[in-house]
Amino acid sequence: LPQARAGIISTVEVLKVMEAFVNEPNYTVWSDLSCNLGILSTLLSHTDFYEEIQVFVKDVFSPIGERLGWDPKPGEGHLDALLRGLVLGKLGKAGHKATLEEARRRFKDHVEGKHMLSADLRSPVYVTILKHGDSTTLDTMLKLHKQADMQEEKNRIERVLGAISQPELIQKVLTFALSEEVRPQDTVSVIGGVAGGSKQGRKAAWKFVRDNWEELYNRYQGGFLISRLIKV
């Protein structure tokens, strides 16, 4: 992909190579594919090809998604669990119908306390339901954040809130980032999640950082978090 971004080879050729990996079982390979497709989606988000790349993502990731399923299989290793989370998150975010429906069903059971989501499925499920969610979805996620006993779960939720799509809800997430509900050291994760969530999120996050620069700079001056904020 770096060569494609530099204009050395055609992006079409890169996508053809990616298609050849549909039967690949290795987590590291899929992680690399996912990362590169994420970069490509970001680059294409300002073009007419964005929806088409989402269709491509669904086509590439659905065979491995069907093979892995939602539940652990006997004898599978840690990397299989990581791969499952990666693949289901990618499919859900891209709007794969069956993945979205199952994520919503499992999220409902989780919220109602019927069946708690395993730690490795929480992020992909949260991302999926937020990406295709509404104000009720966001309110539910913020409630889960407030109720969470473990800081790990609070951070998990903070990182994915930016997946929400509607402009007014994006603003709500950004306001939340600077609230007392979020530890100062974790504010950058929330803003970064918004910046990486969508084209609208990127613009909103950039404006938010400019509008609140003085407060953010005073918070983090001289520390690594200010450079991380600028990077995201």
From TrEMBL:
This is PSA aminopeptidase. GO terms for molecular function: metalloaminopeptidase activity; peptide binding; zinc ion binding. Belongs to the peptidase M1 family. It comes from the Eukaryota. GO terms for biological process: peptide catabolic process; proteolysis. The gene is Npepps_1. One of its GO terms (cellular component) is membrane. The keyword Acyltransferase does not apply. The keyword Hydrolase applies. Residues 4-231 form the ERAP1-like C-terminal domain. Keywords: Aminopeptidase, Hydrolase, Protease.
